[in-house]
Write a structure and sequence with these properties.
7 helices, elongated
């Protein structure tokens, strides 16, 4: 899904599958309010990357000036390193975006520092911190007694500077080729019966979080919640909605389209707004 100046850009297909771009629609959007160009990019399929390129090149052809890009979820951010013969697809996608020459590229909750390093003029927006705060308010989290659980070292590195919480960390062994977790160990002391919020940036089916919840329950955890910034619709096909291990999931609408289960709550606004005159994305207090 792509928006230009807060208006949805509609793309069609020719019978052979090629993308049809309606230039008149784009020009009409550009004329509304005489705003600077800002493209909001919500990745759904690889076709969106091609559409992004078509849109930006068309804007360039009209000599419309500088443009800003806001990425709700950076596609291929999982592939942020090379192991063995794995393909560094994140770099290739970043190269494509860089070739479009945006003035600023805002990325909501980058998976790692690699994304910001690969993208030119990148500003990373720290959604995880805001989401955690909202989740804490909703579940009645006691910062003195309850716990935040980081399911791996990456999550700990990403979020441990947010605040002073009682922390637990998971150390998992993953098969990089299959993506499957072979083992998980919880490190840290925990008082039984306390609430725990699992904090991470990305979920597919949610298997990692179910395994984490199982281990935490074995250690005597009370209610367990999940705060995850980017959540795929695949979570509804996993075990989280079916079982009671995780009481509630809090996420954003950066990937997921709509909630199909009462256990999954989508928080669409995390306090970031765009100044329409400058295109600058700022945090609302």
């Amino acid at each position: 899904m792509i928006k230009l100046n807060n208006v949805l850009v509609k793309f069609e297909q020719f019978p052979n599958g090629e993308t049809r771009v309606d230039g008149e629609q784009i020009v009409s959007i550009m004329s509304i309010g005489n705003l600077p160009n800002c493209i909001e990019f919500k990745y759904e399929t690889d076709a969106d990357l091609l559409r992004l390129m078509f849109l930006k090149r068309f804007l360039d052809s009209k000599d419309t000036g500088e443009s800003t890009l806001i990425i709700s979820y950076m596609p291929y951010s999982r592939m942020d390193r090379v192991e063995g013969e794995s393909v560094f697809t994140l770099k290739y996608v970043a190269d494509l975006i860089n070739s479009l020459n945006f003035e600023i590229v805002y990325v909501h909750e980058a998976h790692s520092d690699v994304t910001a390093a690969l993208l030119n003029n990148c500003v990373a927006l720290n959604d995880g911190e805001v989401l955690l705060g909202l989740a804490m308010d909703k579940v009645g989290f006691d910062v003195e007694k309850d716990y935040v659980f980081y399911p791996d070292a990456g999550a700990q590195k990403r979020y441990s500077k947010i605040g002073k919480f009682n922390e637990l960390v998971g150390f998992k062994k993953r098969n990089f080729e299959t993506g499957r977790i072979e083992s998980l160990q919880v490190v840290g002391e925990m008082e039984p019966g306390r609430k725990i919020i699992i904090l991470d940036d990305l979920s597919s089916y949610g298997g990692t979080f179910m395994l984490s919840a199982e281990k935490l329950k074995e250690l005597g955890a009370g209610d367990i919640y999940l705060a995850v910034t980017h959540c795929e619709d695949k979570i509804f096909e996993g075990k989280i909605p079916e079982y009671d291990l995780i009481t509630k999931v809090f996420t954003t609408d950066s990937i997921i389209n709509k909630s199909k289960h009462e256990k999954v709550e989508i928080i669409s606004s995390l306090g970031w707004v765009r100044d329409e005159e400058s295109n600058e994305v700022i945090e609302v207090a």
